[in-house]
Amino acid sequence: MKVLVFGSLNIDYVYSVEHFVQPGETISSTARQIFCGGKGLNQAIAFAKYGHDTWQAGAVGVGDSQMLLEMLQQAGVHTDFIAQKEGASGHTIIQCTPQGENNIILFGGANQTISKEDVDKVLGNFEKGDYLILQNEINQVPYIMEKAHNKGMYIVLNPSPMDDKIFKMPLKYVDYLILNEIEATAILQAKNLKNEAELTSEQLLDMLIRKFPDSKIVLTLGGEGAMYGDRKKRCSQGIISVKVVDTTAAGDTFTGYFMGEIINGKMPEEALKTAAAAAALAVSRKGAGTSIPAYAEVEKMKQEKHK
Ligand code: RIB
What is the pTM of this model? Predict the structure, then answer.
């Protein structure tokens, strides 16, 4: 069984700022750091660090991608299916405050140049029972989902960042849907419902299960933890409190470690615990790919905090 993360690779330019820049305002940053990121790259690293045999597919620019490929290789991710394209790799501009909050401007670059031929070539190497992990930072996601479904691959979707492209995806094929409350509200188009502001996380989860009855749902709740639900089962898990340095890639780390456990046959309760420990370690460190913990660190954190 193989794990294929078909997703973005970005160079993250992280600016430390006292507060997020306001409309019309110019502020100086106190530092700039450059990290490897992209939801695809981060999740691929999390799966590999968990211990799964992991491939990343996607696209990078020929001239500026060396650090991205090296970082994946160092983490043990296979990079043979990452296409090299003319032009720039994807990049982001991230503001990070002393409280560890961030906001992100995304430039798609090579992530948006994937062709159907690229997809066919990659998926030719995978088969029934393999896992496909997707986010919403590359083009061709609907085509990738159709092809992977026809092959009998399991499909995991983290619909992030959320935008209208999500509604062009064949969501009925998704086996695991991992999303936060804002993404959940958008995917349910709950803004059209009367009492949007009053929806509790339990109600959101109920609505997601009703809308996607064949999917298993993980609803992440930021500081409140996360919930799992399917037609037969519900469970939830709080966060492990740590000093927050940078929340970038915490969600990606959570996804990789949660699914890492599920693929290994663990119950959702256990998978949520492991993912909470992994995410706590990720938020206590700066950067995206670099903040993703090793399996042994996650186990240690779990033993100490989930006694
Ligand atoms: O999820 C975090 C990631 O989102 C960052 O690494 C950035 O590249 C954006 O894609």
Answer: 0.95
